[in-house]
Every structure is written in structure tokens, then in C-alpha cells.
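From the shared-data thread, chain only:
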Amino acid sequence: MPFASVFLQSMATGRKVLFDGVLSVSYSHSLRVSTDTDETAGTDFVSGARSVPDRLILAVAASDVNRGETNASQLLLSSLISLKDTMTLLRAVTPLRSYENMLLTDISVARDEESPFGWQGTLTLTKTNPEIIASRPAQEKAAAQTAPKKTSDNSSTKTNQGTTTAQTVSNTPDSAVGAIGQAVADALSASLQTSSPFERLLENAGIKVSNRYMTTY
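Structure, as C-alpha cells:
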């Protein structure tokens, strides 16, 4: 069939994808039916049906020789893969009819002895709802924003870890400790040498002086 009568076109940019050969075009329009059984009659009957997305299968060929470039078929294949990965909405034009809002859902190509300077393969296009495709980027962005953020153990922010000072808790009542401290301060102010009045002053405060070492009792 004429090559120019079959092509793909981006609905967003209008850019066309042409092929060096079109071997066949297959059309698929069907309903998916659900059945039930009439136990009395012993027969099945259709209880419901819904439309299956239209499919178009193109058997095409690409050649480096026809395009005059050594990597022309490779570039064409890369363009087709990009259209598939980005879920670009396409218009498919064929001799029997044209389709809009088609997605390139499958690419299967082969390079063999019949096409040593290119490839032959099939492209499957499936009709889709453009509103669903348009809403996907917004849904993915919203999901990314609401997803919990991972925290790394190797954080660049250093935490100030202060020095912990050990504190010894005394069993001596606070009032006694204060009295002892005051007595010692008074005694030291009066004399730096041990004497009988000094010893008596410490004993009155509850401190026993023995061999120049002070112990409480």
C-alpha cells in the first residue's frame, strides 16, 4: 500500500512519523461481554457488555538505504520509543479510517537477513481517554509531595551534645550541710591552725577532728 497513506502524527505538535514500508494494517473493534447461565434451559446468555478500546496494529519497515543515512532506522526507532515512554497522544491515519487519542502501547521490531540495513516490526496503538493521560502528571506530583520524606543517618547538621556533669547526691539534710559549711567558714576565718577553740567550734557544728582529717558524725 502507499507509504504516505499510513502515518502517525503528534496531536500536540503536529509532527508526523513516516515509514519506509507499510506491510499491513490490522483493525480491532470489539466488546467484552459477560455471560450468565440459565439453569432451567441449560444455556448461557449475555448478561452485559462493555466496549474494549480500539486497537490498530501496523506492520512497518524502516531502511537506512531509502533515507540515505546510515543510522536512519535507528533514529526512527528511538523516536517511536520516546513517543511510547512519554505517552504522547497520536493521530493514526490509515487508508480505511483515522483514529485520534491513540497511545503507542507496544513496539516489536527485528533486524534480520531480509532487512540488514534497517528493521521490520509491528506497532500497536490503543485508543485512550485523553483526560486520564492529562491528569497523570498532576497525580504523580501530588503523590510525591504527600509521600513521607526519608531521613539520612549521615545528616550534615551536627547536634550540640553538651557535657554531662556527674552530680553526687548526699544523704545529709540540706540544713545540716548549710550549718556545717557556715561553721567551717567561720573557723577558717578565725584561724588557719588547729587549736582547741577551733576544734570545739567544729565539734559544736557536728564535725569530729582526728589526726588533722575531718569527718562528720
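The CA atoms of residues 59 and 175 lie 101 Å apart.
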